[in-house]
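@channel sequence for tomorrow's demo:
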Amino acid sequence: MSNIPIKDKTGKLLMSDEEQNNRWVEQFRNILNQPDLPQTYNFYDEREAIGTVDEFDVNTGDISVEETEAVLETRMLLVLTKYQQNY
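structure tokens (generated this afternoon):
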């Protein structure tokens, strides 16, 4: 498996492949066999409380040329400012 020793739960180094494989089996059993959560989060309750996304005034239309130019200009200024700070 590996030449690198791993530790068991008590901190003992496991040197042999068999010991390491057994530890991995134990680790995955512990991870995968977790008890069910006592209560799961219900996203539908929250959605009902705040309303659907359609109720918000969000512009999801096409991006205009002006918006693209503004973003590129801002990005260029940020890059230049950062470049100048490095010198």
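heads up for whoever presents: The two ends are 49 Å apart (CA to CA).
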